[in-house]
Amino acid sequence: MIHPLLVTITTRQSARQFKLRSWLLWVLLGCWMITIGLVYSYQQQLQQAQQALTLSQHEFDQSLNSIRELREAEQQLFTQLDSQYDRWRHFDNRLQGVEVLAGLSEVDITPIPTPYQGRLAQVQHKIQLRQQMLTKIPNGNPMEYRRVSSQFGSRKHPISFKRHRHTGVDLRADKGQPIYATADGYVQQARDNYDRGYGNMVTLSHQMGFDTRYAHMNSVAVKYGQFVRKGELVGYCGNSGDSTASHLHYEVRFLGNAIDPKPFMSWNLANYEQIFETVGTLPWDSFQAELTQQLQPLEPQLSQQVPSSMVPLSSVATFTSTGK
Ligand SMILES: [Zn+2]
C-alpha cells in the first residue's frame, strides 16, 4: 500500500502541509513522461529537417553550377551559329550572284526551299548550255581590226559604184593580220590563189544552220573538210579579189541567207540574252533545246562535280527552255 505523500510549504510566519494522494502522483508522473516523449520526438523531427535542408542546399548548388555551364555552352553555341549563319549568307549571296550571271531569273531563285545541290546543278547546266551556244554559234570578232570600213546592208559598191546589198561587214586591218574561226565548224570551202570576187576565202559550216565566210584573205590556213574549233586560225588578212584595200569581208549566214554579223560579233557571255532581242527572227529556243539534248551525256560528269542528291539534268531542263 502506497501512503499519501506529505508536502510542506514553509513561510516566515507559518508552515502548511498538503497531503498528495497516490492517484494524483501517478497523474503527475504520466504528464512528465509524455512531456519528455514529446520533446524527444520534436528534437528528432528537427534533426531530420536540418539534414534534409542541408541536402537540398547541396542539390541547389549543383543545379546552379549546371545552369551556369549550360548558359556558357549556349553562349558558345550562339556564337558558332552566328558565325555559321554569316558564312551561309555569304555563300548564298555568292551563289545568287552566279545564278543571275547564269541567267536564272529572280523567279527561278528560291534559296530556302531548293537544296544547294539542286541550285548548283541548275547553275552548272545553265553555264554549260551558254558555253555550248557560244562555241557552236558564231560570236565574237574574227580578227583584231582598226575600224569597220563598210557595214552590212545596202551600199554603193566600191569598184562598180552601183547600189547593191553588202552581205557582210568589212573590217579594215593590215595585211597578214591573223583571222580566227568564230565558232566550231567544218571547212566547207578553202579557196586560195584566187583573185576575183571574194578572192581567197574560207567558208565554215557550223551547227544549227549557220555558216561564216572570211573573204579577201591574203592566204588561207585550213583545208577543205577540216574541223576547226572556235578561235582557231583560218587565214590571214589581205586584199585579194574585188578589194581596194587590205581588209576582211566577214559574213554570217543562216540557212544560206546572209544576216548582219554585227550582233554576233558583239555577242558574249556577259550580254548572252541580248542577241535574242536584236536578232529576234531566229528560233533561239529551238537551238537551246537541241543543245540541252546534246548536253545530256555530260550529266555523269556534272554528278561527279556535285556529289549526292544532285537534281538530274532531265528535271532542270524544263526551265532552260523558257529562258533565252
Ligand atoms: Zn565586204
From TrEMBL:
SUPFAM superfamilies: Duplicated hybrid motif (SSF51261). The keyword Transmembrane helix applies. The chain crosses the membrane at residues 23-42. InterPro entries: Cell_wall_metabolism_enzyme, Dup_hybrid_motif, M23ase_b-sheet_dom. Pfam families: Peptidase_M23. PANTHER family: L-ALA--D-GLU ENDOPEPTIDASE (PTHR21666:SF289), PEPTIDASE-RELATED (PTHR21666). This is M23 family metallopeptidase. It comes from Neiella holothuriorum.
